[in-house]
Design brief:
This protein is 72% helix and 0% strand. It is mainly α and 115 residues long. The longest helix is centred in the middle third of the chain and has 42 residues, at 38-79. The protein is elongated and about 65 Å long.
Length: 115
């Protein structure tokens, strides 16, 4: 039961991350739009800002789910309900966590806010 929960969290995070990655290449960028009018430029800017915000929200949700999954696994190990093993999917959680953090740092945060 516990492993099923952890696998579900991992699968859900993978789905959320794939949706977020799809949001990084919007269809609007592949369409040539007449940007000569300020109204079109403003709309494109607003669409881009909204896309970035949506992508940020998806990555933050994925990070929250990963943190909850890791905490669940740690508590289960501490309580003796789960044992550490070489085949445990903790590495998948760690991979997804580092992937989300890397994307947030590289694509969504301005260079001045990076550490």
């Amino acid at each position: 039961m516990l492993l099923s929960k952890l696998e579900f969290i991992c699968d859900l995070v993978q789905c959320i991350v794939s949706v977020a990655e799809e949001r990084s290449s919007p269809l609007a960028q592949s369409i040539i739009v007449d940007c000569s009018s300020p109204r079109h430029r403003d709309k494109l800017f607003a669409d881009e800002v909204q896309r970035c915000v949506e992508q940020l929200v998806l990555y933050v949700r994925a990070l929250h789910l990963l943190a909850s999954g890791l905490q669940l696994a740690q508590c289960a190990i501490k309580d003796g309900h789960l044992e550490r093993s070489k085949t445990a999917s903790r590495s998948e959680f760690e991979y997804q966590l580092s992937h989300c953090l890397q994307i947030l740092q590289e694509q969504l945060l301005p260079p001045t806010n990076r550490r």
